[in-house]
Amino acid sequence: MAVLLNGLRLVSSGNLSLHGIKSLQYKSTRILCQLPCKSSYQGRPFSNKNMTVELDNNTGVAVIQMKKPPVNSLSLEFLTEFAINMEKLEMDRECRGVVLTSSNPKIFSAGLDINEMYGKTPEHSGEFWRAVQEMWLKLYGSNMVTIAAINGSSPAGGCLMALACDYRIMADNPKYAIGLNETKLGIVAPFWFKDSMINVIGRRATEHSLQLGLMYSASNALKIGLVDQLVAQDKIMTHALSVMSEWLAIPDHARQITKSMMRKPTLDRLLTNRESDIQNFVNFISKDSIQKSLQLYLEMLKQRKS
Ligand SMILES: CC/C=C\C/C=C\C/C=C\CCC/C=C/C(=O)SCCNC(=O)CCNC(=O)[C@H](O)C(C)(C)COP(=O)(O)OP(=O)(O)OC[C@H]1O[C@@H](n2cnc3c(N)ncnc32)[C@H](O)[C@@H]1OP(=O)(O)O
C-alpha cells in the first residue's frame, strides 16, 4: 500500500538467506536520484581483476561482466571477488537488479576451474568449495532481481550461476551449449546443484540431464525451460535490461518476500549442511580415481586444441 507513496518504496535489505523477510525498510527512490553518490563506485564502472561491475544510478541496475581469460573459469580468486561484489551491491540501497554476463563473446563461463580441484591439498580443496558455496548462496539468495545474459557456452558451474538467477536469456546460437555435465568428467553434481536445476526444469528432466551429463544447445535449452528466452547475440544486453525493467516494476517488498518464500527451503538445506558438504567434496575429490578422471579430462581439453 505504501509503495511509491511520497516517493517512498518499501524494500527489503540484505540477503534473503541472511536476513529473511523481516528486515524491511523504506528508501526513497525519487529522492535518491537527485542525491550525490554516496558509495565509491556508483554510476561508474569499477574494475576488479576478473570482472567489471557497473551500476547505473538512474535505473538501479548493475551489470557484472565476467572477464577472466580465456574462458571465465571459476577459480578461488574469481569466486572470492564475485562474492565480495555481490555483497557490495546487496548492501547498496540504490542497486535493485543485477545482470550477469561475459566479456568473452563465445563463453559465458566454463564452470569451476578444474585446476582448483586437481592435485591440491585437502585444505585448499575445502577453501575452494566454501567459495563455490558462497558464490551460490549470494546469487541464489539475493534480494535483487538477477538476470543471466548467457552470451556463450555455459557448462557445469557456469550453468549453476545461470540457474541461480531469476531469469535466463541465452544468445540464439546453435554453437552454444549449457548444462550440468559433471558426470561426463566422472564427478557428481552436489545436492544443491541438483536442487537448483529441479527448481527450474523439474525432477524428471533433471534426473535425465544429470545422469547423462547432458549439454543442451540453446534451442534445446529453451525447449526444456533451462533458459527462458533466446535472443540474437547482439541484442542480448538490451533485451536483458528491458526484461529487468519489467521485473523492477513490481514492488520490491512483494517480489522479495515471494522470492524468499520460494527459495528459502533450498537455501536452508545447504546452510544447515554446509560443513558436511565441504567434507564430502574434499573426500570425494581426493580419491585417486577422481583425480585420475580430472587429469584425463584436463589432458583431453588441451589435446582438443592441437
Ligand atoms: C558421493 C558423492 C556425492 C556427492 C559429491 C560430492 C562432492 C561433489 C564433487 C565434485 C563436484 C564438482 C562440481 C563441478 C563443477 C564444474 O563446473 S567442473 C568444470 C566443468 N567444465 C567443463 O567441463 C568445461 C570444459 N571446457 C570446455 O568445454 C571448453 O573449454 C569451453 C566450451 C568452455 C571453451 O571452448 P574453447 O573456446 O574451444 O576453449 P578451449 O577448450 O580451447 O579452452 C581454452 C583453455 O581453457 C582451459 N579450460 C577450459 N575449461 C576449463 C575449466 N573448467 N577449468 C580450467 N581450465 C579450463 C582449456 O584447458 C584451455 O587451456 P589451455 O590449453 O589454453 O591452457
UniProtKB/TrEMBL annotation:
Keywords: Acetylation, Fatty acid metabolism, Isomerase, Lipid metabolism, Mitochondrion, Transit peptide. Pfam families: ECH_1. One of its GO terms (molecular function) is delta(3)-delta(2)-enoyl-CoA isomerase activity. InterPro entries: ClpP/crotonase-like_dom_sf (IPR029045), Enoyl-CoA_hyd/isom_CS (IPR018376), Enoyl-CoA_hydra/iso (IPR001753). GO terms for biological process: fatty acid beta-oxidation. It catalyses: (3Z)-dodecenoyl-CoA = (2E)-dodecenoyl-CoA; (2E)-tetradecenoyl-CoA = (3Z)-tetradecenoyl-CoA; (3Z)-decenoyl-CoA = (2E)-decenoyl-CoA; (3Z)-octenoyl-CoA = (2E)-octenoyl-CoA. It is found in: Mitochondrion matrix. Key enzyme of fatty acid beta-oxidation. Able to isomerize both 3-cis (3Z) and 3-trans (3E) double bonds into the 2-trans (2E) form in a range of enoyl-CoA species, with a preference for (3Z)-enoyl-CoAs over (3E)-enoyl-CoAs. The catalytic efficiency of this enzyme is not affected by the fatty acyl chain length. Belongs to the enoyl-CoA hydratase/isomerase family. PANTHER family: ENOYL-COA DELTA ISOMERASE 1, MITOCHONDRIAL, ENOYL-COA HYDRATASE-RELATED. Homotrimer. This is Enoyl-CoA delta isomerase 1, mitochondrial. It comes from Chiloscyllium punctatum.
